[in-house]
Amino acid sequence: MQKTTGIHHITAMVNDAQRSIDFYAGILGLRLVKKTINFDRPEVYHLYFGNETGQPGSVITFFPWPKQVKGRIGTGQVGVTSFIIPNQSIKFWENRLKKFRIRFIQSVRFGEKYLQFQDPDGLEIELVERNEGPHNNWSFGEVDSEVAIKGFGGAILISTQPNKTANVLENVLGLECLGQEASFLRFKSDGQFGNTIDIKLTPSVRGLKGAGTVHHIAWRAKDDQDLLRWRTLLQDKEYYPTEIRDRNYFKAVYFHEQGGILFEIATDPPGFSVDEAVADLGNKLMLPSWLEPKREELEEALPTVEVRVLEENQS
To answer: Coiled coil: which residue ranges (predicted)?
Structure first.
């Protein structure tokens, strides 16, 4: 049976590029591993944040566009994105969120303690301590490798038809159902990162696309050949996947599962060092070859952004 090892990346929509960089790099300490454009809307950035190398399973990406209307988190979407932090680091993160005046709540799900909060656009984020996965060697500001976010813990899916979404996770993507607790059904894959998926079983409002919502969740494929097998499987099961699309740093197919959530399957290779050295990741606007002739025009149209140490880290 085909099996994904877990989440490849999660992509969300936001309003302001610099504000998102300040939050995910400046506060959460993730590395900006790629500054490029939305290949379908080149006037809009596509920003990728992850661990030191942008390893699959650690990368959250954003389409920042000021003209986007505010979205609403609800059915047909990823409701919450979870990140793993090292054991014994949760107190550091509580203090850090307080320092930046970010309100958070604590919750327990399947025996794990979560810190839940929102980013500036209203995306729901949570941190959970786990032993799984290597430490992230990237350090920024006060966030060093001893406390740095390792990668994804997983996600909470809000489905219009939870039983249909559960069927896709278990019988198409190959995740194992671990059982139900209260209003959540939990699934797990074999990967070190992005391996724990909870489906919310209680009713939710209808999700509306826009700033502050997740656009899609992507699952890992080993390589191009594995992606072809995934596409054939999806066709056989009548999920009507798209053609294979080249995203420069991975190849991908997309499909909507029956609960309304946009799923992607993306290859691990070639990765983010295909067009710049690991030491230089995120420093320069990177463009696909077919847009390179328009570099000057695009750089003029896009807002100037930078990774910067925030005032709170200087005190």
So the answer is: none
**Residue-range domains of the chain with CATH:** 7-314 (3.10.180.10)
Candidates 3, 1, 57; CA nearest to 169 is 3
Residue 62: half-sphere exposure toward Cβ, Cα within 13 Å: 28
What sign has the CA pseudo-torsion 45, 46, 51, 55? negative
Q: What angle do CA 222, 226, 230 make, to 5 degrees?
A: 120
Closest by CA to 266, choosing from 223, 213, 214, is 223
User: CA nearest 117: which of 144, 99, 138?
Assistant: 99
pTM across the whole model: 0.97
Q: Are 159 and 259 a contacting pair, CB within 8 Å?
A: yes
Query: 100-110: string of b/e by CB count within 10 Å (b at 16+)?
Result: eebebeeeebe
Q: What is the mean pLDDT of each run of 10 residues along the chain (315 residues)?
A: 96 98 98 96 96 98 96 98 98 97 97 98 98 95 96 98 98 98 97 97 96 98 98 97 97 97 98 97 95 95 94 71
Per DSSP, 26 falls in state: I
